[in-house]
Write a structure and sequence with these properties.
By secondary structure, the protein is of the alpha+beta class. The chain has helices spanning about 105-115, 115-130, 140-160, 170-180, 185-195, 210-215; strands at about 30-35, 40-45, 50-65, 65-70, 75-80, 90-105, 165, 200, 205-210.
């Protein structure tokens, strides 16, 4: 099934830069795959690099070297960068029930040969992905949690609008792995932010009550 402007994330999808007319041919190569469930692997580590992906619904994470390297939200294109080995450098794991948009490498390469706008756009996204490093374990624990939540809030608003809610379907273990701290420390830092009136904790995430304090 190909995608179209009717997709709820079409206005924020990175593959077409939110529906840029010059990039709409990307919609013709998409394969929707899923559902995947908690812990299912979309990509195994060191698997041949045959596609890039975007989350259609749900959440995913990249895992490599024994830690969580990144979380992926709906509309975000990832796994574009190809290592010299021509293999994926990390596994892609579903967090809860997740659907993906799959962009086959052969099809996108063919588009790039005929459409310089698409080729330029994907090169830009590859450079961005290549330049990203695992979340640096710098600053105090509370600072790392603040930055993590602020980043998720900003990214989610690109697709969902100005909501104060940040879903956290991933486990505290996964958040801790990403931030370089124990799950118990993650829990304590969230409780500290709640006590300071910065956020309210829900079963499925947090509501940001004081955005200015979160971003300070």
């Amino acid at each position: 099934m190909h995608c179209s402007a009717s997709c709820r994330h079409a206005g924020a999808c990175e593959a077409t830069r939110g529906g840029d007319d010059k990039l709409l041919e990307m919609r013709g190569v998409v394969e929707r795959v899923g559902p995947f469930f908690e812990g299912d692997r979309l990509v195994q580590p060191e698997a041949p690099h045959r596609a890039a992906f975007a989350v259609l619904s749900g959440l995913a994470m990249s895992v490599g070297g024994g830690r969580v390297l990144a979380f992926h939200l709906p509309g975000e294109l990832f796994a574009l960068d190809v290592a010299r080995s021509q293999n994926h450098g990390a596994s892609v794991v579903a967090v809860g029930k997740t659907w993906f948009c799959r962009f086959p490498r052969a099809a996108t390469d063919a588009l790039c040969e005929d459409n310089e706008d698409i080729a330029r756009h994907l090169r830009t996204l590859r450079r961005r992905e290549r330049g990203k490093t695992p979340h640096a374990a710098e600053g105090s624990a509370i600072e790392r949690v603040r930055v993590f939540l602020a980043d998720l809030l900003e990214r989610r608003r690109r697709t969902e609008g100005p909501s104060p809610f940040v879903p956290l379907p991933m486990s505290r273990d996964d958040i801790g792995s990403y931030l370089g701290m124990s799950p118990a420390t993650v829990t304590r830092m969230l409780a500290k932010l709640r006590a300071e009136g910065v956020l309210a904790i829900r079963v499925d995430g947090v509501d940001v009550l004081d955005e200015a304090s979160l971003l300070r």
